[in-house]
């Protein structure tokens, strides 16, 4: 690879990081108070679970976009779907400022997730290609750091704006980073319009060649997402239990994103050295976070913030080493489809887990604790099988 090409791919890598930074300001800022906002609109507990189905919807669209892009095997299709996805992902969020019913707010959260679903697997394929020289673990780690800087800034901005002006102005203030993000992704496309990994093979869709290791990996991650409590549940119940105020919930989410950012590069570098062994971190941190969350009504505010930090460690694993793992267990021509399958299963199981938690958290803390232990320990046990597959 020539020096000029390397510089160009590195610039595209940085632009994609800046896209994620500004995009995360928008949707993570809005999601940080999603459950609390729905509760403030008199939504019932099940409404937080309904809002979380946006992730399922998003992951269904990840699968759809991956299948379409794999069939077309076209750089233009990859970039086109990615850009449209970002537009839907970002430009519907500010409309939350004009809602006055919980079901309209929930619908907007659902629409936003579909846009994220469309663009994520294809963006990850592009990212895997432009980070090949530096190491995929490190590349995804640096990208996640930039991503999480936005995820920190967004909730902080929303928390300040809610305190000063209320929800409407807080959501409308997210328009600026939304437009900046769209400018960055357009610039990345103009600099790097042709993707080598996309055009390696003729257009086709085939599930052959994904391999046993990939399916064991998917099963382990499915159990992890079943036991990893969704932030919509967390933010709803922190308000429902009167553990934190609305602005404090946004700050707790900021703590989660700060932790996510702090571990992104170190865990990515570690992954490049020891590969799948780093995946053990995710079920461990998810289990600790979930147990602390379940008992925050009696343990108090400091524990709620500690829980948020551990929740962020798990999310950091999802956004770095798990994305890098997909690229390492599959050949290049299978990556888009692999990301789509992974996203679909992850979305289904995380949504199912969200509904389960919305019910059992009202029934018994002991049942919720046992559920978390069973799912997350089982996930950890399967990771060893990924190593030897």
From TrEMBL:
<keyword id="KW-0472">Membrane</keyword>
<dbReference type="InterPro" id="IPR036259">
    <property type="entry name" value="MFS_trans_sf"/>
</dbReference>
<protein>
    <submittedName>
        <fullName>MFS transporter</fullName>
    </submittedName>
</protein>
<feature type="transmembrane region" description="Helical">
    <location>
        <begin position="213"/>
        <end position="231"/>
    </location>
</feature>
<keyword id="KW-1133">Transmembrane helix</keyword>
<keyword id="KW-1003">Cell membrane</keyword>
<dbReference type="Pfam" id="PF07690">
    <property type="entry name" value="MFS_1"/>
</dbReference>
<dbReference type="GO" id="GO:0022857">
    <property type="term" value="F:transmembrane transporter activity"/>
</dbReference>
<dbReference type="InterPro" id="IPR052425">
    <property type="entry name" value="Uncharacterized_MFS-type"/>
</dbReference>
<feature type="transmembrane region" description="Helical">
    <location>
        <begin position="165"/>
        <end position="192"/>
    </location>
</feature>
<feature type="transmembrane region" description="Helical">
    <location>
        <begin position="303"/>
        <end position="324"/>
    </location>
</feature>
<feature type="transmembrane region" description="Helical">
    <location>
        <begin position="336"/>
        <end position="353"/>
    </location>
</feature>
<keyword id="KW-0812">Transmembrane</keyword>
<feature type="transmembrane region" description="Helical">
    <location>
        <begin position="278"/>
        <end position="297"/>
    </location>
</feature>
<feature type="transmembrane region" description="Helical">
    <location>
        <begin position="359"/>
        <end position="383"/>
    </location>
</feature>
<feature type="transmembrane region" description="Helical">
    <location>
        <begin position="251"/>
        <end position="271"/>
    </location>
</feature>
<feature type="transmembrane region" description="Helical">
    <location>
        <begin position="88"/>
        <end position="111"/>
    </location>
</feature>
<dbReference type="GO" id="GO:0005886">
    <property type="term" value="C:plasma membrane"/>
</dbReference>
<feature type="transmembrane region" description="Helical">
    <location>
        <begin position="59"/>
        <end position="81"/>
    </location>
</feature>
<dbReference type="InterPro" id="IPR011701">
    <property type="entry name" value="MFS"/>
</dbReference>
């Amino acid at each position: 690879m020539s020096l000029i090409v390397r510089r160009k791919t590195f610039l595209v890598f940085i632009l994609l990081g800046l896209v994620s930074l500004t995009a995360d300001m928008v949707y993570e800022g809005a999601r940080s108070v999603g459950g609390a906002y729905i509760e403030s609109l008199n939504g019932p507990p099940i409404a937080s679970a309904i809002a979380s189905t946006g992730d399922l919807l998003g992951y269904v669209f990840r699968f759809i976009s991956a299948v379409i892009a794999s069939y077309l095997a076209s750089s233009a299709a990859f970039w086109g779907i990615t850009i449209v996805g970002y537009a839907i992902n970002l430009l519907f969020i500010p409309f939350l400022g004009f809602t006055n019913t919980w079901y309209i707010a929930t619908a907007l959260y659902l629409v936003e997730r579909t846009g994220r679903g469309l663009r994520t697997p294809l963006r990850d394929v592009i990212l895997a290609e432009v980070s090949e020289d530096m190491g995929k673990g490190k590349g995804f780690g640096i990208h996640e750091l930039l991503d999480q800087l936005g995820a920190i800034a967004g909730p902080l901005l929303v928390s300040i704006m809610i305190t000063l002006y209320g929800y409407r102005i807080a959501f409308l203030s997210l328009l600026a980073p939304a437009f900046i993000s769209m400018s960055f992704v357009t610039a990345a496309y103009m600099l790097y319009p042709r993707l080598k990994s996309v055009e390696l093979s003729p257009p086709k869709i085939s599930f052959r060649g994904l391999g046993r290791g990939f399916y064991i990996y998917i099963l382990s991650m499915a159990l992890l997402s079943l036991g990893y409590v969704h932030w919509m549940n967390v933010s709803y119940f922190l308000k429902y239990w009167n553990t934190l105020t609305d602005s404090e919930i946004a700050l707790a989410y900021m703590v989660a994103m700060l932790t996510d950012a702090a571990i992104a590069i170190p865990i990515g570098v570690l992954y490049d050295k020891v590969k799948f062994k780093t995946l053990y971190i995710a079920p461990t941190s998810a289990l600790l976070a979930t147990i602390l969350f379940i008992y925050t009504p009696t343990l108090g505010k400091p524990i709620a913030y500690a829980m948020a930090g551990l929740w962020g460690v798990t999310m950091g694993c999802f956004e770095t080493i798990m994305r890098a793992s997909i690229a390492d267990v599959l050949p290049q021509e299978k990556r888009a489809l692999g990301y789509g399958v992974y996203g679909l299963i992850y979305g289904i199981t995380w949504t199912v887990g969200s509904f389960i938690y919305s019910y059992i958290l009202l029934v018994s803390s002991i049942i919720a604790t046992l559920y978390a232990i069973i799912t997350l320990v089982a996930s950890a046990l399967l990771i060893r099988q990924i190593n030897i597959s």
